[in-house]
Amino acid sequence: MKDEKRMRFVSAEQVAQLAGVSRSAVSRTFTPGASVAPATREKVLRAAEELGYHVNDLARGVLANQSRLVGIVATKPELGFRAHLTAALAKALIHRGNIPILINTGQTEEELLAAQKMLIGHRAEATIILSGSPPASFFELAQRNGQPLVVIGRSEPDADHVRAGNSEASRKAANAFFEAGRRRLAVVGSQSGTPSITERENAFMSAARSLGAEVRSAGGPDSDYDSGIAAARELFAGGERPDAVFCANDQIAFGLMDFIRIETKLRIPEDVAVIGFDDVPEAAWLSYSLTTFRQDPVTMALRAVELLERRLENPDASPGYERVIPELVVRKSFIPV
Q: What is the model's pTM?
């Protein structure tokens, strides 16, 4: 019974028998650029279609000591902008002819190294990192195995990387609030301390102070909806409340906005203006109508794949750097003057 249920893929030998050709003719038919007579090709393709045959890419990868796998390493890939970026990366890699493999990992050195060893063990062509701050050993292991790395959302001296224009957008948010007459500013980030979140917080606070505005900061344990609520509770607990808040991502902004409207009964934007970052689809929902900086996940994904292709073509090239500047999408939570 076990033998009967065992998975049995259609083989090239079966195709050859049905087509009445040699096994090598089948191989040449499915090898780009190989020489095969048109009549033979037609018979092979007809037999393959009838049997449901597909080339064994796994076997070809073993022979070449590599695969078309590309690892996407991420923490909580289902949340916020990261979910859309992961989807865009998968689509771009598939279009390139790769097989994306997602590894949902933590941010500790041990977890990241375990993910990397898994990808190297499966001879992944490259790794794209969306989360965490990889340790030096991560890059050393990749270099010893000749595996390209592309890092998104942080700068790493030993890897190609793609970053958003965090500081440019954050300074623009502070200036827009100030020009609109808002003087009690706040920025909400996260205690997680990721490079992108930290850059946005620091740039906003620096710009606000240089303008002479009052500025406060707050943040929950993570960069999610619940942390937005926690930060709002801290900022609006009493005393002088901010009249404008810049949130380091949209998920934080959603939590903050719900708290402001439901718990404090303040109006947005009349009493409190809010700007987010990412422009996830929920930002356009009528319940939020969030003014936010748009990171285009498709653009970020394509830039990452371009860096990957450049690295594969020239393994000794100096690290590549792509910076994508977000655009402000104006909705009802704040309308600049």
A: 0.81
Burial 51-84 (b: 16+ CB within 10 A, else e): eebeeeeeeebeeeeebbbbbbbbbbbebbbbeb
Do 132 and 115 reside in the same domain of the chain?
A: yes
The count of domains in the chain is 3
Whether 292 and 329 have beta carbons less than 8 Å apart is answered as yes
Contact present, 162 and 303 (Cβ < 8 Å): yes
Q: Is 90 helix (H, G, I), strand (E, B) or coil?
A: helix
Q: Are residues 31 and 90 in the same domain?
A: no
The last residue of one of the domains, among 33, 55, 77, is 55
Backbone angles phi, psi at 36, to 5 degrees: -155, 140
Domain that holds residue 33: 2-55
Q: Domain holding 264: CATH number?
A: 3.40.50.2300
pLDDT digit string (tens) for 243-297?
999 999 999 999 999 999 999 999 999 999 999 999 999 999 999 999 999 999 9
Q: How confident is the model at residue 132 (pLDDT cuts 50, 70, 90)?
A: low
On whether both 119 and 155 belong to a single domain, the answer is: yes
CB neighbours of residue 97 within 10 Å: 8
CA separation for the pair 320, 337 (Å, rounded)? 38
